[in-house]
Amino acid sequence: xxxxxxxxxxxxxxxxxxxxxxxxxxxxxxxxxxxxxxxxxxxxxxxxxxxxxxxxxxxxxxxxxxxxxxxxxxxxxxxxxxxxxxxxxxxxxxxxxxxxxxxxxxxxxxxxxxxxxxxxxxxxxxxxxxxxxxxxxxxxxxxxxxxxxxxxxxxxxxxxxxxxxxxxxxxxxxxxxxxxxxxxxxxxxxxxxxxxxxxxxxxxxxxxxxxxxxxxxxxxxxxxxxxxxxxxxxxxxxxxxxxxxxxxxxxxxxxxxxxxxxxxxxxxxxxxxxxxxxxxxxxxxxxxxxxxxxxxxxxxxxxxxxxxxxxxxxxxxxxxxxxxxxxxxxxxxxxxxxxxxxxxxxxxxxxxxxxxxxxxxxxxxxxxxxxxxxxxxxxxxxxxxxxxxxxxxxxxxxxxxxxxxxxxxxxxxxxxxxxxxxxxxxxxxxxxxxxxxxxxxxxxxxxxxxxxxxxxxxxxxxxxxxxxxxxxxxxxxxxxxxxxxxxxxxxxxxxxxxxxxxxxxxxxxxxxxxxxxxxxxxxxxxxxxxxxxxxxxxxxxxxxxxxxxxxxxxxxxxxxxxxxxxxxxxxxxxxxxxxxxxxxxxxxxxxxxxxxxxxxxxxxxxxxxxxxxxxxxxxxxxxxxxxxxxxxxxxxxxxxxxxxxxxxx
Amino acid sequence: xxxxxxxxxxxxxxxxxxxxxxxxxxxxxxxxxxxxxxxxxxxxxxxxxxxxxxxxxxxxxxxxxxxxxxxxxxxxxxxxxxxxxxxxxxxxxxxxxxxxxxxxxxxxxxxxxxxxxxxxxxxxxxxxxxxxxxxxxxxxxxxxxxxxxxxxxxxxxxxxxxxxxxxxxxxxxxxxxxxxxxxxxxxxxxxxxxxxxxxxxxxxxxxxxxxxxxxxxxxxxxxxxxxxxxxxxxxxxxxxxxxxxxxxxxxxxxxxxxxxxxxxxxxxxxxxxxxxxxxxxxxxxxxxxxxxxxxxxxxxxxxxxxxxxxxxxxxxxxxxxxxxxxxxxxxxxxxxxxxxxxxxxxxxxxxxxxxxxxxxxxxxxxxxxxxx
Lengths: 649, 372
Description:
heterodimer, A: 31 helices, nucleus (chain A)
């Protein structure tokens, strides 16, 4: 876009100005160049040029990539926006809602016994999943989110809920059913037609129900057929009987269930051997499925549509008491049987296989590579870590896997103009490096308004980051000063406890006074309170104004006292001595002062002497003024000496 | 509190305001406007929570706010007020003051008038931080320390008070039709009288020795001299502007900046505050005596129900309830109105029995059964 600049150079480094992401300095071996990027017009660019690009720096808003072959006459600065996802408004809801859940998860009390915590973890897992599903409903492109939810759900069943044999299969059935919603749509279509039993999809629906273990619904559908088939009435009755007698896995203990199931399985097998359903091809098919015949199942690939559906169905009708540890044998073989031997397994398939293998780390690793956003792995790993399921892998730079992923995710969030606030909480819960990351990132949030600056300051102050507080306040003070808002600048320097800057601003105030003859921003100066002690110059400014106020109110004695203290305390800047003396002039003429304050005269005399000596060096001191002063002082001194000398009763 | 579910809206909400309901109709408000901030493209949006059904009806899902229309806004929306039923005035971080017109028939929004650089600095933008309306007059304040008086039907500003404040002014409210009250970033309240031509305030109040920035100010609906303020330290102060330079009550309300404080417009015994610490508090003050408040004071009309406006003449116990010198917590009941901890609650508005608020977690909460 607008921002390309041609620089002939070799090595390039780009540094962005803090708090101003439109300004950057490009350093190279031939010098440096100041560039202004107009952000509004830059969009995501693809690197489709022939030069070798290398990424040089990230800032709060955008990573900048500089490309240029050595020796070539030109290089271009590209503004690249990574992570398109963050900018989607619907995914923003995902990020915000999951942030809420994340923070809630971190605050679960550590001291609870683990059996109390498990249901909480399961419910948190379900919350995350419902957030994903809510986004899926709104987003057009659902495939990634579907895959994410599928994987998360499986992880919840296998790792977080960690269900034992028996209920394992039921949970897996639920998992498959949740992700194969088209059966219900088809069923609705069939039932709403004029004659459901003659609908071309009728038997597909019945078979699908059986494949998913939804035998009650299969029975209901078959009842419609049975009502119209007088000839095969007995067969339908037999099938209905078989379907109703399949033992449900939830009620009995494992051994009881095993016994019951074997009985039922033998009965179904007998029906098959007796060829009871031989004359009805559909019922025969269903019987074969019920007995768990693999070939029959494989003939219905398009109804199963995925190898894991095949896996669960096969287990349901052949090995319903499967233990979690045995899963991976069957998963491997089912995948091999189902998929074409020519096609390689897709990423999703290998992730699910790793999950069936209970290899959590492999799941996380594969997901990190496959997905272009850290959201999923960061949150899932965090939850698994809370469930104490991750071994503490120490990565070579010291933090563990959970922290690494959270840091990556949160850093990505910080790149977003709005979502950076969420990232703060994530950094807070990374004990090793979170604080350092936060310190570096928080200073680079652009501050357009005071309100945003206050929010950032609140974050820094809550976490005891005084360096960042000072730096932010100083930048706000500088900005105010640039706009001639001296009062604002002073308030910011006071907040930063920046004595040097406060001195600078006080000088400006004093300069203004010298040029204009009046003070500005009195509402501020009068009400500084103890803050005025921040810098000598500031104290002088406040006290000097107080002097003028007293003078205006005709409290000459007080005014004189104050002036004297100002002079003796030596906090007046040299440039101001002349003004002070000039102010002292009329005071000296005031009768009451000369009578009650001989010290003032003496102090002023000291100062005049210094001034006179000084005036020989500086030509711009008005000599007439000095003469007048000397005269007034001499007269005053005379009166004072007389008064001192007079012994009064 | 039941019936406060979050609606996530993909934008950080800086302001929420109910559209005023006509005083004759006794209906509850059902339309509110929101402004966003910190976005590349900020927006003002108008939402509806549907007509309030019969009391007792299960209307959990009906309460979900539906977006009616929205419009792009240049800069953060730092303040937002309804000028009347159809027009909204916003204060922008670019220094602009804009009047938007909401066309109810077509559910669209258009810009009726804009003062583009009403607040400005020599080198940078000066955000306009506060706006208050008393149709057709609009008063705005900003980080440039200016106070500007506009009229909705006039092209230029009616009056500009330059350098009204050496620091940034954070909020403004009307005390009377010709008097306003501003709060600034060094903890001062300043009264300005537009009948006077001078550009200095008629009165300055502040907590002596303290320079804690004040962020919000609200006037008691019936007693024009009672004002509540909230600031950076989360303290809720109630002032009587007629007397004294210090607030009457100081209550530690929040642990971080208090962004907004509102008296309930018809039931001023109730006060609402929201803060950066992610909480929204409902303060209820009990009167001194056991007698219900509507039976005290000048008027002795037992037909006045509690929800009607309090007698205009002023009810002694109502006043003193807020100004009790040592308002121990015993006389104040506080309720958290949000279900769980969230990021900063930036804004709230309450009208009738309905409360709406917006947070930095990009969520809006609506509660239609506020116990007032």
